[in-house]
Design brief:
This protein has 294 residues and is α+β, with helices and mostly antiparallel strands. The chain has eight helices and twelve strands. The longest helix has 41 residues. The radius of gyration is 24 Å and the shape is globular.
């Protein structure tokens, strides 16, 4: 479905046993290797991608426009890189916002009518090959980040949910053994209490609501896409919800102007602020800001 892919990365494929259930009403378009799929709703959310595996009977939602490139004239990977450039995403978003339907949306013909320069086929393939190699490296780093994040979550679960270190100390296990088992240094070991209170929390710990522990909790904002002055000159880093998929943000894909900041609900969020995505495929994901962003 459209929500299962963002910026070329698939987070889930649904498998349906036709002996037990019917196909969802939106699952009606069969796609093939090298096809490009592009969501017709809110282009700026970047629910698009390219089919790079031969998966038998792969269907996509009717919410996608499916583009099958003529291999004699163009390279599918090159066309994908072209139509997903910021310039074309913004153009399609502007068209979508002018639509009178419930959601900002485009038609297949809007993609058909895009105009761009097309180099010879061999040049297309070389360009696409270089960009593809960079994407492959990015994907490797993304997978490494996922592994590190899982490790961090396991440590957090052990220390602050299961209270393993406190339990080990309460049981009187030798300090050296506890440090070795949980991969901690003596100074970290000393930070944990060695007993539990009557409420089954580590001694000295309390329960509290996030709203009572924070200075501020607010929503972010997006300047209007169809007003160029809000995005040019691009000077202030602007974080989209789709980018909230890394533990720490050290750069953003887009920037807004000072005028865009003044004339929208966007705000400056300082370094070390926690951000939680509210919409799209990353809804509920959290990240820590490593820089000031809007």
């Amino acid at each position: 479905d459209t929500g299962n892919i963002t910026n070329g990365t698939v987070d889930q494929i649904q498998f349906i046993d036709l002996k037990k259930e019917n196909l969802p009403s939106r699952a009606r378009r069969k796609v093939s290797f090298n096809d490009i799929i592009y969501s017709t709703v809110r282009p700026n959310q970047k629910h698009y991608g390219r089919i790079t595996n031969n998966i038998e009977n792969l269907l996509v939602s009717t919410g996608f426009t499916v583009i099958t490139v003529d291999p004699i004239q163009a390279d599918s990977k090159f066309i994908f890189y072209v139509i997903t450039q910021k310039e074309y995403t913004e153009k399609l978003q502007t068209i979508a916002e002018q639509n009178v339907s419930t959601y900002p949306s485009i038609k297949p013909s809007d993609l058909e009518d895009l105009i761009f320069s097309l180099p010879p086929l061999d040049v297309q393939r070389k360009i696409a090959g270089i960009l593809g190699a960079l994407d492959d490296k990015i994907e490797v780093l993304r997978e490494q980040n996922k592994t590190l994040e899982k490790m961090a979550q396991a440590v957090f679960q052990s220390w602050f949910v299961d209270f393993d270190i406190v339990r080990a100390k309460a049981a009187g296990l030798p300090t050296a053994d506890v440090c070795k088992k949980y991969h901690i240094t003596p100074d970290i070991y000393d930070l944990f209490p060695s007993a539990f209170s009557a409420d089954n929390l580590p001694q000295g710990w309390t329960i509290g609501k996030i709203k009572n522990l924070c200075f501020d909790i607010q929503s972010g904002g997006t300047p209007q896409r169809n007003i160029k002055e809000y995005w040019c000159p691009p000077t202030i880093p602007w974080l989209s919800s789709g980018e909230v998929n890394f533990p720490i943000i050290i750069h953003t894909k887009e920037k807004i102007s000072e005028e865009g900041l003044r004339n929208s609900s966007a705000k400056i969020w300082k370094k070390y602020t926690t951000v939680v995505a509210m919409y799209g495929a990353t809804a509920g994901e959290a990240t820590l800001l490593g820089i000031d962003v809007s």
